[in-house]
Amino acid sequence: MADNVSTSPEVLNFPFEEPAHQRETALFGMWVFLVTEVLFFGGMFTAYLVYRYSHLQAFLEAGRHQEWYLGALNTAVLMTSGFTMALAVQAARRGDRTWLLRLFTMTWLLGAAFLAIEGYEYHTKFVEHLVPGNGFAFTGSDPAAAQLFFVLYFTMTGMHMFHMFIGLMLILFFGLWTAGSTRPMHKPNCFEVLGLYWAFVDIVWLFLYPLFYLVNPS
Amino acid sequence: MSFQPLPYEDSTYAAPVDTIFVLLTTLCSVITLAIFAVIIFFCIRYRRGSSADRTPGPPKKEQKIMEYSWTIIPLVLFLFLFVWAADVYYNMFSPPADGIPIYVIGKQWMWKMEHPEGEREIDQLHIPVDRQIILTLTSQDVIHDFDVPAFRIKHDVLPGRYVRMWFKATKVGTYYLFCGQYCGALHSQMIGQIIVMTAADYAKWLDEAGATTSGSLAGEGSRYFHELGCSGCHENSKVVQAPSLAGIYGEPVPLESGQMVTADDDYLRDSILLPGKQIARGFQNIMPSYQGLVSEEQIVALIAYIRSERNTPAPTAGSTP
Amino acid sequence: MNKSTIEHLKILASLFLLLALTTAVAFVPLGSWNWIPNLVLSVLMTGLIILFFMRVRYSAPLIWLTSVAGFVWLSLLLFLIILDYISRPWPQ
Amino acid sequence: MTTQPVHTLPPKNYLNAKETVASWFFTHDHKRIALLYLASITFFFFIGGIAAMLMRLELIHPRGYLFTSDTYNKLFTMHGVIMVWFFLIPAIPNVLGNFLLPLMIGAKDLAFPRLNLISWYVFMFGGLFAVASILFGGVDTGWTFYTPYSSTYSNGWVIAMAVGIFINGFSSIFTGLNFIVTTHKLRAPGMTWFRLPLFVWTLYSTSLIFVLATPVLAITLFLVALERLFGVGIFDPHLGGDPLLFQHLFWFYSHPAVYIMVLPAMGVVSELMAAFARKRIFGYNFIVYASLGIAFLGFLVWGHHMFVSGESIYAGMIFSLLSFFVAVPSAIKVFNWTATLYKGTITFDTPLLYALGFVALFTIGGMTGLMLASLAVDVHVTQTYFVVAHFHYIMVGGAVMAYLGGMHYWFPKITGRMYPETLARWSAVILFVGFNMTFFPQFILGYMGMPRRYHVYPEEFQMLNVISTLGTPLLGIGYMLPLGYLGWASFFGRIAGPNPWRAPGLEWQTSSPPPEHNFSAIPVVTTGPYAYDLLPDGSKSFTESDDGG
Questions:
Q1: What is the pLDDT of residues D397-417, one digit of tens each?
Q2: B274-288, D274-288, D357-371: range with lowest mean pLDDT
Q3: Contact between chains at B21 and D371 (C-beta distance less than 8 A)
């Protein structure tokens, strides 16, 4: 299996002339992009905190309807996928195609499991009439504010799931590309950038979990 | 309408606002003109081909001193004006205890005013000169803005919330009331008048206008209090399921959640529309919401009624849970 | 297993531990204040992920700086907005 | 007496390196992408400009006979949206910045050339939505999209417009990201941070704002669109929301956005001042720190747009105080430009005229900004024409003046040819006069109390409105003239040679127009910027043609 662990010369994109320079630049670029992502989600977190402050009672009541164990399970799933992804990046750096593909498969399956659990949760919300809009039914002190909680819940987890979905597509794409190519892996930076993205998606969830599932767990 | 260009001073704010404005303008103009003068002077003196001395300038240390001094001196002057302007601003939005309370409701695209005596006006507000007027503003739909340039007052009128400001007109006359916040198609036609009258004229106007109204705003509120069924629970004589509202206005209310709130306009409004939001200690959340069942005018009247009862002592028996 | 894999495993174990802790904390009756320890623990977990899974611990200072910049900026936004809300009640 | 040196265009340059249409639309060359942006924003500028002209025409008469209220509202919304997001924000960064950043730091291109092209396509895609929403019937919310009007009550194509701006935001983000990474990673050997030209510093500061502020706007407009689409009430008070939250989030972006427009303008002016005074810029370090300071403080003052909106009056006081502080770095810059002229050798070529125009108008704009930052005064003049005049002085008087000054200064670098100097000087003067005539009366109108976004207004305001409207033809000529003669000169102007201004910046050390990859060999930098005193021969002489004169 010698060809699996060969380190190969990287492809250099214009205007770079050295692999190290290209790598540093690509990673820095990704980090700057993640800064924008932090603020993108940040706008929604701001809305959450403001409304939680203004409608504490309603948020506590609405939080009752969240299954904390599903959230905890999802957090664990996502953390594990972050772990496998981090290892996948290491494998890519070593040029270890076999392990890269194995770890990618695991990451992908864990990510898909996350989406499935989240989908189940959306389904229960639908059944309990907790989806904002005309069908929304909530008995509590302030249904409008409770609806706000669920609007934020669906928007923020929805936006997070959208990011997960993109991540899964990218893993699939890079995985098939790696599996289908017999050439040594010549673009290791792609995997590192993808790894950063995936870890960021994890981080967003680490904040969504306490804010939506641990508000008032029973 | 007696609308004159600068300077017109028709409320108690006009003088301080204009003074700050004039001071700022002077200070800014002096700085601006000084910069322009220096630029023009340099441009002429150091134009290409002039024989001006161009040996290197002052040493580095002086350069730094210059940088610091032209930064810090104007800043200190401006900070002085900041404090002054902030003080006037604070004053504008801190209504005094006594004054004529007037409720203003904005809607696309008109102003509805309600006097404590029960007079209602559309796009017009009659007020006496030299009296403190306390405005409580709210909107039925989008954000509007109560803007009277002659009085130097302006504040957004928000849906779902009361904002308060006050002023004292110092001159008899008719003044423009604009909507200062873009509110839709006829935004620029949402113009009203503030009619400032002498005390005598105002009393006369109240009498004449009063002939067509059905009593004071509080009286009207009292009627709604019974018609809408509030009295069924909130009147002292009945079984105690709900807190008595006599004497509650402006007083602290302990809540179930352990917090204390003041029973101000906003609290009362919320309690009518969202009774479960802040539950008074010792009571249960059994009151139905009146959202969609009462108009902004009715809420205002109800609040005026509760306010008028503020001096009625709360019955001691009613407050035990 | 190489050294790096072992390190990753340790981090994953710590993350699970913190997850258990944050979940447990949510059940402690603190009135409505559980969110503060919860968020602190989330920040801790984030720190672990950033430092190890995202390799910032082994990166140049520029990356360190960038990795916190977004959070610092977000806290500016949050701070000034919350400032408005908590001081909203007007003088009577 | 020497004869004027005869220059020829370099036979191979970025303009003729490849000649197919596809080679333009799929180019990765930052210089060509800059020209793509130039064409697009010029197009948008004229759309926004026509809307402005129609508005001024309507305002001649106090009863507004020309348009219905609805049409007028759509016009000012269109003017605002197009001018802010599709002209002013991309103007200097995406045209001049794109063209010059790699040249100025001695790089072959931006760090991510493909992303740069994608950024343009994203920009155009966003523009498509914006233009479509106008063509289908327009939006009447004002460029500020205040809720609940925009989310519930308006009947216009708000969602399409919001989507357009959302997409446009990603173009800004990509550009900002690219600039930041390029500045960090692709500087030529010897180009240390404190040898960077000030224009690069301001582009860097601007990019920080792009990256840190734009995502918040994107998510805010996304929430508005969501609320409108599903009627779920995120900012609607009847459903528990708070319209002020929208304003906070909106101005968290839109206040720094003003600095996106004006910071690079300041950078351009710094370059021009040094070039036409033939001197090192005064207080280079102070200007650098001031740029970063503006970018930072600019994030902390958004609440001054909301002094009368219902935000807490204590928050108002804090925002007011911070707003006074943001004036400090701006003032430092104005003082430093003035000091740069001291003991210079000044020639009054068109770019300097624009730069001086910038300083004058920006100073007036900044000073009136201080009045607006003063709480009690703001209560009186906010949401009136005073504010309109103030931000036009900053954004049009400031940013557009500097943009045109920069376009003239770097025109020979971009096209290899010179523009007609006399005509250009006249055009700058006409623009300056027209601008002041249009916008100065609006300060007075504002203090008299005329609210903005009014097209039916009391008769007392008519005189000043007429004067303001009379200024617009001059303003229009001031914009049309450069479009005409710069367009002409791109093909028929005198050939300029590599360094017509005899400037020491790296962008002048390569041919004009530059070759496809900017430099034949990556330059090595040994001195700081603006080393006019170190120029080998005749540093005091200005243009080559003047050598013997």
A1: 999 999 999 999 999 999 999
A2: B274-288
A3: yes
Average pLDDT (B4-18) is 70
Domains and CATH numbers, chain D: 30-546 (1.20.210.10)
CB D338 within 8 A of CB B43: no
pTM over 0.90: yes
Q: What is the DSSP string of chain A?
A: -GGGG---PPPPPTT--SHHHHHHHHHHHHHHHHHHHHHHHHHHHHHHHHHHHHTHHHHHHHHTTS-HHHHHHHHHHHHHHHHHHHHHHHHHHHT-HHHHHHHHHHHHHHHHHHHHHHHHHHHHHHHTT-SSSTT----SS-HHHHHHHHHHHHHHHHHHHHHHHHHHHHHHHHHHHHHH--SPP--HHHHHHHHHHHHHHHHHHHHHHHHHHSSS--
- The whole-angstrom distance between C16's CA and the closest CA on chain A is 7
| Burial tier of D172 (Cβ tally within 10 Å: 0-12, 13-18, 19+) | buried
Chain B residues with CB inside 8 Å of D59's CB? none
**Nearest chain C Cα distance for residue B94, angstroms:** 6
Report the mean per-residue pLDDT for chain D. Answer: 92
**Chain-wide mean pLDDT for chain B?**
83
Quick check: C88 contacting D, CB < 8 Å?
yes
A46–chain D Cβ distance below 8 A for any pair: yes
Query: What is the nearest CA distance from A113 to chain D, expressed in angstroms?
Result: 27
What does the pLDDT read at residue B319? 39
**pLDDT, tens digit, 9 for 90 and up, residues D329-351:** 998 899 999 999 988 899 999 99
Rounded Cα distance between C34 and A210, Å, is 9
Cα Rg of chain A (Å, integer): 21
Q: Does C90 touch chain D (CB under 8 A)?
A: yes
Asked if the C-beta of D252 comes within 8 angstroms of chain C's C-beta atoms, the answer is: yes
- Kindly provide the ipTM of the predicted complex, given to two decimals: 0.90
Neighbours of chain B (3+ CB pairs under 8 A): A, C, D
Interchain CB contact of D317 with C (< 8 Å): no
Which pLDDT value is given to residue D461?
Answer: 92
- Asked if the Cβ–Cβ distance from C90 to D245 is below 8 Å, we say no
* pLDDT band per the 50, 70, 90 thresholds, residue B252: confident
Q: Which residues of D touch B75 (CB under 8 A)?
A: 324-325, 327-328
Distance from the D241 Cα atom to the nearest Cα atom in chain A, whole angstroms: 7
Strand order in the sheet with B124-128: B124-128, B192-197, B173-179, B144-148, B153-157
How many angstroms away from the CA of C90 is the closest CA of chain A?
A: 15
Residue in B90, B163, B264 closest to C92 by CB = B264
User: Which pLDDT does position C29 carry in this prediction?
Assistant: 86
| All domains in chain A, ordered by first residue | 15-213 (1.20.120.80)
Q: Look at residue B211 in the predicted model and tell me its pLDDT.
A: 65
Q: What is the pLDDT of residues B178-226, one digit of tens each?
A: 999 999 999 999 999 999 999 999 999 888 877 666 678 888 888 888 8
**CA B176 from centroid of its chain's CA atoms:** 16
Q: Which of A32, A56, A189 to mutate to test the interface with D (most CBs of D within 10 A)?
A: A32
CB contact under 8 A, B85 and D374: yes
For B79, what's the count of Cα atoms within 13 Å in the CB-facing half-sphere? Answer: 11
Quick one: closest CA in D to B138, which residue? D310
Lowest mean pLDDT among A6-10, A207-211, D204-208, D446-450: A6-10
Q: Which residues of A touch B279 (CB under 8 A)?
A: 141
Mind listing the domains of chain B with CATH numbers?
Answer: 1-45+57-213 (2.60.40.420), 217-319 (1.10.760.10)
> A172-181: per-residue pLDDT in tens?
999 998 888 7
Contact call for B164 and C90, based on CB within 8 A:
yes
